[in-house]
UniProtKB/TrEMBL annotation:
Organism: Oenococcus oeni ATCC BAA-1163
Topo IA-type catalytic domain mapped to chain residues: 1-229
Pfam families, per database record: Topoisom_bac
GO cellular component, one term: cytoplasmic replication fork
Protein name as catalogued: Topoisomerase, I type
PROSITE patterns from the UniProt entry: TOPO_IA_1, TOPO_IA_2
Top-level taxon of origin: Bacteria
């Protein structure tokens, strides 16, 4: 009980203390990133930081550095889920600055043209039945946007295909009706393209591996900075 009380008092009496860090903003190959002092060190006040910098012959402002080592590490991240109404509205706003009402009106017109499934859905899953016809028609869909993709996995993935999570309506996807390019010209084509390209991910558990770069740099040859993990 005594230890619990002491811990509780320590939490109540805790006061955050400001501190200073020494970081380097690196510009290399026309890319900027921030690197932290390695080994990492904090300073209680600016005076302590400035004393440290003078001792290491480092000054504020631009100066040359040497990249000592670059380590590249591949990281996987899950592909985004299929579109519900809200996630599609968010995506269209981010890419095309379309409002929520504009997106709804556009996909409603595509639904009435029998090209998209029911738009007012909050579900991000489809059933095996929808998956089967999407796989069968995927080449035709992608032919509309000139994006050839070699499917390496045609097995349903639970992240997208799960009939137990589909209640009244499933995710927003293309229907079995594959439009002609001529018909698309009179419809909200950007919305159709977005959904086609997004829906092709249902057979991939991961998006393309992102490249994470961790670089160590020696600034003025007296300090080392590191970014990444």
């Amino acid at each position: 009980m005594c230890m619990v009380y002491q811990r509780d008092q320590a939490i109540k009496n805790f006061k955050p203390e400001p501190y200073f860090e020494l970081n380097a903003e690196i510009l290399a190959n026309q890319q900027k990133f921030v690197a932290k002092l390695d080994p990492y060190q904090r300073f209680k006040d600016e005076a302590g930081l400035m004393t440290f910098m003078r001792a290491k012959h480092v000054h504020k402002g631009s100066q040359d550095g040497l990249i000592k080592d670059v380590q590249k590490q591949g990281k996987k991240r899950a592909s985004p889920q299929l579109f519900s109404l809200s996630s599609l509205q968010s995506a269209m706003n981010k890419r095309y600055h379309a409002s929520a009402s504009q997106t709804l009106a556009a996909i409603q017109s595509l639904y009435e043209a029998k090209l998209l499934s029911y738009p007012r859905t909050d579900c991000a899953y489809i059933t095996d039945e929808e998956f089967d016809y999407l796989v069968a028609n995927l080449t035709k869909y992608l032919g509309l946007v000139s994006k050839p993709v070699a499917l390496t996995n045609t097995t349903p993935n639970k992240r997208y295909v799960d009939g137990k999570k589909v209640e009244e309506h499933y995710a927003i996807i293309m229907t079995k009706v594959v439009p002609t390019k001529e018909k698309l010209a009179s419809l909200p084509i950007s919305f159709c393209f977005m959904i086609i390209l997004h829906n092709r991910k249902y057979s991939y558990p991961y998006s393309a591996a992102a490249r994470a770069c961790s670089a160590c740099l020696a600034v003025t040859f007296s300090l080392t900075f590191k970014n990444g993990t």
